[in-house]
Design goal:
Helix content is 0%, strand content 56%. It has no helices and nine strands.
Amino acid sequence: GEWVGNDWRNYDKEIEPLADIPTSFGISQNYPNPFNAATTINYQLPSGGNVTLEIYNLMGQKVATLINGQMDAGYHSVNWDASQYSSGVYFYKLAIADRVFTKRMTLLK
């Protein structure tokens, strides 16, 4: 505690640490890559918002939507089960607000 004016104040000085919130938007390379059947994609949001995470084939056709909705700030992970898709190169695109991130991955069966 401490003296404040003529009063003794006893309080806990411990400060709660801030939650682990990233300072920038971003998306990581999927792992494993190349992959067979399933892979994991990690991304980070410094603030919440409406997020889409979509998978495209080499012809630019959308083949899957993994996320389409409101997400909170923080570190996130999503799995893609690609067992029903053909071997080849795919792109995954994360969009939030006015930011878009795209990365490439390879499915090998």
